[in-house]
């Protein structure tokens, strides 16, 4: 919209750009996130920040045996990684954002545009409101009564800093990209971000109120309960958890596969607000591509409403396919049979696995 000289108001609930940690690394697919950056004229700025080596992937069993090892080709640009903070800064550039503007309600059909109410009691009208406000969208209720439901799978996230110097043995285990270890109903996944920062995700089946009485700020207690959950796994793998000093609980919620709504003039959704799905590598890519496509459709439109309708049809069809696929993957990745997880990677990974890890080690540690 910015490139088409269309005025846009960006409303963000966070009080500032750096109000909270931006989260883990993202891989941007050539035909999705990277295409959106190309349309925004930002691909050339993205490439030097991106980490093609981050596409490397290694899979272990709970004894530490390397089952698959896919090194990354540094020239391969299909899915390079980028830190979320870097991507956010790239996208925001010098654009004006109205920070600290929490939306509480959106009311279409006022006759005078779409009414937006804010947490501070003010209100304002707009021609088109695009709800890109994530899983717990406050725009969605204007279009759909549906809310996200719990998948039965929880992630607990922790981080390791300066891994190459402080934990060289873990650095070797993780390699240039990610390492994933699959056991019955549990997984441990560690992913490199830039600058030796690593995000570790403990993934397991649990009730929504798992350890609800545990103080999330009590890192020692959370670490102990996680180590108990992964009891019996080889020590070098458990080291991924033992060095975490802060833990964030993320129970995975999703919207129903193929969530749609009856079109309402002047309001639409994109990204997680429209189609929250398991976090398996496409959510941010879809949100970015949809943003680019909606902007192009609106910029070219004779009739704004027709353009938004056509955008929604296209988004629903594509997101429905991904939601179905990622729901099936999640069931197999955190499943009673770890072989099912391995099969997901064999299905989707384009290249051959090498038989031993670099350095000749075929066991963790
Ligand atoms: C552990 C994990 C790993 C993931 N890995 C990947 C990956 O590798 N690749 C990938 O493509 N996707 C990945 N995802 C998914 C991806 O993070 C999401 O799909 C993506 O962030 C959705 O973008 P969004 O803009 O729709 O929503 P969000 O990123 O949630 O952004 C919503 C924005 O709206 C703001 N907001 C919320 N409510 C209001 C309000 N009421 N008023 C004003 N502002 C509001 C929020 O502050 C936020 O800035 C992962 C997710 C997780 C949890």
Offer a concise description of the structure:
Residues 110-300 form the FAD-binding domain. By secondary structure, this protein is an alpha+beta fold. Helices cover 31% and strands 20% of the residues.
How would you sum up this structure, described in words?
There is one protein chain. With 365 residues, the chain is an alpha+beta fold. The protein has a domain at 149-254 and 346-357: 2-Layer Sandwich (D-Amino Acid Oxidase, Chain A, domain 2), CATH 3.30.9.30. Helices cover 31% and strands 20% of the residues. It has 11 helices and 14 strands. Strands 3-2-10-11-12-9-13 form a 7-stranded mixed beta sheet. Strand 10 (178-183) and strand 11 form a beta hairpin. It is globular and about 65 Å long. The N and C termini lie far apart (51 Å). The relative contact order is 0.17. Bound molecules: flavin-adenine dinucleotide (FAD). Flavin-adenine dinucleotide binds next to strand 1, helix 8 and helix 9. Flavin-adenine dinucleotide binds at residues 11-14, 24, 26-27, 102-103, 132-134, 138, 155, 250, 271-273, 279, 281-285, 287.
